[in-house]
């Protein structure tokens, strides 16, 4: 961020009134601290040393600026209305008129978070560490228009976008328009996903161009949707605090707010200081990245909106292919079948039951810490399944089957959780209920109809294994929802203060001089009506005051008694301290003194030992500690000289 962009940002924050200069720190200093932490991913204590401020001051300024930046969401997070065709589409013959109804691109990205061991299984998805899955939409100018952080890392993109379409601050799809999404999302009339099982990533077309209608559609779809990946790359490169591979220093709720603030700042900078060098670096990294398969939504959506989406995609792809064929002036060969896939292992219900029993056994043996199966657990599963099934079962077979079972369970669990009237029958393996209970559920969710006749075996075992791993999205929140929550908290705080003021102005009635015609009132009431007190209420107030006074007396007596006990304990401690000091002094007096070589040599020089005999005398004394103590025990210099000579040269008898 350049100086001009920094100064303009400070002026914007000053203008909205959410950030103010303090006696010791200007808005510029507070924003500088905030940006330093985002750009360097530093701890609060490191920044406090750099800025010569206390940890508490740095933390308070950081959160003040963080909140102020999120309040800018209504200026920098603006959803499209679909009135105009994006310039990047309108000016390209590869995209126009085929994608003329496309407004933006949507994708999710994983950002590392720090959570407790209890919550870790919900946040540890396809990554080896805990993350939250952030859903975002961006336009073709690489600016975010909608951001929804907070969902756990195990949540799929399809599940998050369904939630985004039904929230209070929901993702808006203009009528007759659609967003570009990858294969991890469901195909809808408003969500244009690519063909599955067909080449998609741009790098896959570098050596061989598209050869059929589906490949051509996927190639151009990927070229256009690539803007969201580039935007995520620039965001993380600009703000290392959300791209670090190490565990973050802030709790998960603060990380959610940091993500929102970083997206808002990114949009601001794309308008005033886009940094083309940074964008070029990200483009180069994306082109050099290895191809990775996206997590795919394998469900066969059959509702009406999915069919409309499929029809729309087919019409776009067909028109695009016809124009492409005419331009190339040649007939492309028909689509070839995909290479025969390796035959998958067939699982039966009995095999599933055996695998689930083994998994429960391994879990009870402690081989699933924090929701992660250990290598030892997988080895035991493979060994026991191979022995039971009669052929080799590899780790990949186990992991794929666990993924399938987990997905099936979650579909059922989400549908029937907290639903009254339904019960799972272990004999039929069906969820059973009366027809009048099924009808409203099927009407609200067409996918529920299949579970009326489709059994789900071993549901109780699946519940024990996977119910705690299910992401619930309780921490997800958009910038607009965050601002509304802050506003509500502020209103509640103001109302609480008003109530406290009202109680502060209330005076207890004088019971002794009570008159039924006079009643106390709250000064904050606007009504002129006075509540009349009855003798029964007066008696109740007297009893309550007596109980209250008795409680206060008991507390005061306990405090006084505690003070006396504390004084006695302190006196005993002081007495013990004095005894310990005396004992230490006695020990010091009785402990033999150890003299260093420097002290011995200095004393020999002092008593006048000739130079040629000084080393011999020093070695003589050092060799025998008893003689050294005798030497230093003599009080005068002359006597020390005499005793040394007698010890070194004793007279023969």
TrEMBL record:
InterPro entries: DUF8040, HARBI1-like, HARBI1_dom, Myb/SANT-like_dom. It comes from the Eukaryota. GO terms for cellular component: nucleus. Residues 106-267 form the DDE Tnp4 domain. It comes from Quercus lobata. Its cofactor is a divalent metal cation. Residues 1-70 form the DUF8040 domain. This is Myb/SANT-like domain-containing protein. The keyword Iron does not apply. PANTHER family: NUCLEASE HARBI1 (PTHR22930:SF268), PTHR22930. GO terms for molecular function: hydrolase activity; metal ion binding; nuclease activity. Keywords: Hydrolase, Metal-binding, Nuclease, Nucleus. Residues 346-439 form the Myb/SANT-like domain. It is found in: Nucleus. Belongs to the HARBI1 family.
